[in-house]
Amino acid sequence: MTTMSVGQIGLGKIGSIYARHLINSGAELTVHDADPSRRERFGDDHWRDTAAETVKDAEFILVSLPDPDASHRAMMGEGGIIDLAKPGALILDVSTIDPSTARALCDHANVRGIDYIEAPVSGGEPMSAGTDGAENANITFMAGGEPDAFERAKPLMKILGEHCLLLGPAGTGSTVKLISNHISGLHNLVAAEAFALGRAAGIDPEDLFAVFAHTDANSYWLFNYFAPRIRNQNFEPGFSVDLQYKDHRLAEDLGRELKVPMPLNAAAMQLYQIIRAKGAGGKDVAEAANLFAEFAGVARYDG
Description:
Rossmann fold; N-(1-d-carboxylethyl)-l-norvaline Dehydrogenase, domain 2; five-stranded parallel β-sheet; three-stranded mixed β-sheet; 51% helix
C-alpha cells in the first residue's frame, strides 16, 4: 500500500490531535502553523517553517483553521495554499466556515486543477463530543464537494473519524455543520438555565439527572456532554465558548442571507457573548451553567 503523503496546515487543539492520528497511521506528514511555538510538539521530522514547504509535494492537504477569515487568508491570500499546492492534489478542509467561503475556495481550487472537499466535523458518539471525539477518532465529517473528490478523500477521513457523509456541492457541509452547532448550542443553554432553576429550588443536580434519564428531557447533550462536566467541575474545552459564539454568528449570517428568522439563535449569541465579556471565552461551553447560576444567585459549579 502506497504511503499517504499529507501536508497539514493548522495545529490548534483539534488540529494537533489529527496530526498525531496521521503520524500513528504511518502517513508521510509535514505540518505548519502560524504559531511557531507549536513546532516543539512535532519536531523537525514533521515541522516545516512555511506553508509552501508543507504542501508543495503533498498529495493530500489537511486544513484545520479556526474561522473563515483564517481559512481565506491561508488558502487564497498572497502565496496561499491553493496556489502553492501541486496540480492534482486534494485539499480536505475540516475548518468550520461559512458556505460562501467554502464555495469560493472550491471554485479557486478547481480552476488550479486541485480537488477540494469541505468537511467540518462534529462528535456525536457517547462521551465523545468536542476534543474527545477527535481523540477517539469517531467524529463525523459533513462533506461538500464533488463525488469523485469525496471518494478520494475518504481514506484520509477514515484515519481521523468514523462517519463520512457527502451532503452536496461545496458549501453544503458548512451549512449542515452550522445547523448542527445551532442546535447543540441551544441544548447547552436550555440545560444551563434549567439546572439553575433546579438549584434555586433546592433540588440536587443528581436528582435531576436521575429523573431526566427517564423523561422527555433526556438528550445526548444532557448526559454525554453537560452532565460529565457538571459532575467533574470540568470547564476546560471541549468546545470553547468563543468557537460556539462564532458558529452562532455564522448561522445568523446564513439566516439573514436566506431570509430565515432565527430569534433563538440571536438570544444564544447574546448569552455566549456575556460569557466572553466576562473573560471566559476560552472555557468550555458548559461554562453557561455557571453564568445561569450567577443569574439565579446560586452556587457556581466550579467549586
